[in-house]
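User: What would this chain look like folded?
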Amino acid sequence: MVARDQPSELEVCGYYTRFMQTAPEPIVANECRQCCSFCDRLVHPSRCVEIGCPYLYVYDDEASGRRYMGCINKVYKAEIDVQLLAEAERTRHRFGGVRISGDPLPQCKLSVERAYDGRGEAFDCVNPSFFSDSRASGDGVEGSFDLRDRL
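Assistant: Here's the prediction, encoded as structure tokens.
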């Protein structure tokens, strides 16, 4: 191992520069754990199929002979069995949502789901802004995305 008492030739010649600080991007949390309800933002893949989303991909697994679908933009990471999705869509409960892992697109159908539905102060929402659409432009929030009435 070489001691670093002296700067290297490249450092002296000016080839190395310091890292530039960049402005931090706002972090959009897709889960809220501030109360005991534990809420998650979900995207509904059945909507992708309904509208023929151009970011939806499908591939056939040769080993199992099954067909899977996913999102090119990784709005959700899961790869879903197309046959199981179709079977679930024919039921009363439908397929449901998948946890968001990336930035949702304007055409994505989003919802918020609570993991625990309890009573009392511990389950009262302390972060109402979580129910606002993270896709809202500027500092305004779209009121039509407020999902608290639909939980």
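The chain is about 15% helix and 20% strand. If you want, I can go into more detail on any region.
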